[in-house]
Amino acid sequence: MRDTRRARDAWDIVRLVDDAAWHARQLTDPSPSLRYAGICPRCRSGVWIPETQLATTNHRCMECGHVEPLATITQAHELRLLTSGTMDTAANLCHLLRACGIHVKRNTITQWRKRKRITPVGKDDQGRPVYALADVLLLRRAVDREECHR
Ligand SMILES: [Zn+2]
């Protein structure tokens, strides 16, 4: 909760800085580790954000300057992942999700399977269980909600 408020304060400060300074800061940032968050809803160009950027901030598109809440961009991206029909092993799904800034441990998926919360859709040619990406995403969302209500 405190982090959310801090992010909002930080964004208010950033808004006080003019566009030129904002862009200059982005350009001089020493090669931050970026992650894919989704696409700009206006120009469809890819949105890459620093790992440390909180989901509660706004994103200014580097291509067209469109400003969109980052949460909207990542939610749209999650929806695309949900409907993509992607299926893979726990390890590969975790790797894919991590690249999108969604952290699910491979072990967590194994635990879900043991507790019968998730059912593999099949096995790969090495006999490893294969899961639907949508199942993992939906379960993760459900778990997030449970934790919020604790
Ligand atoms: Zn754009």
Task: Furnish the topology, listing elements before pairings.
Elements: H1 2-16, H2 19-28, E1 34-39, E2 46-50, E3 58-60, E4 67-69, H3 70-82, E5 87-89, H4 90-99, H5 106-114, E6 122-123, E7 129-132, H6 133-148
Helix pairs in contact: 4-5
The structure holds zinc ion.
Zinc ion is lined by residues 40, 42-43, 45, 61, 63-64, 66.
Organism: Bifidobacterium pseudolongum PV8-2
Protein name: PhnA protein
Bound molecules: zinc ion
- What is the count of DSSP helices, taking H or I runs of 4+ residues? 6
Q: Supply the helix-strand structural class.
A: alpha+beta
Beta strand count: 7
Morphology call: elongated
Helix content: 40-55%
Listing every helix as H and every strand as E from the N terminus to the C terminus, the arrangement reads HHEEEEHEHHEEH
State mean pLDDT (0 to 100 scale): 79
What is the domain total for the residues? 2
Gyration radius over CA: 18 Å
Distance between the termini: 14 Å
* Biggest β-sheet description: 3 strands, antiparallel
Q: Segments where pLDDT lies below 50 for 5+ residues? A: 8-25
Enumerate the strands of the largest sheet in spatial order, edge to edge or round the barrel. Answer: 5-7-6
* Strand content bin: 15-25%
Organism: Bifidobacterium pseudolongum PV8-2
Protein name: PhnA protein
Tell me what the structure shows.
- By secondary structure, the protein is α+β, with helices and mostly antiparallel strands.
- The chain contains six helices and seven strands, in the order H-H-E-E-E-E-H-E-H-H-E-E-H.
- The protein has helices at 2-16, 19-28, 70-82, 90-99, 106-114, 133-148; strands at 34-39, 46-50, 58-60, 67-69, 87-89, 122-123, 129-132.
- The protein has a three-stranded antiparallel sheet. A two-stranded antiparallel ribbon has the order 1-2.
- Strand 1 (34-39) and strand 2 (46-50) form a beta hairpin.
- Helix 4 (90-99) packs across helix 5 (106-114).
- 13% of the residues are buried.
- The structure holds zinc ion (ZN).
- Zinc ion binds next to loops.
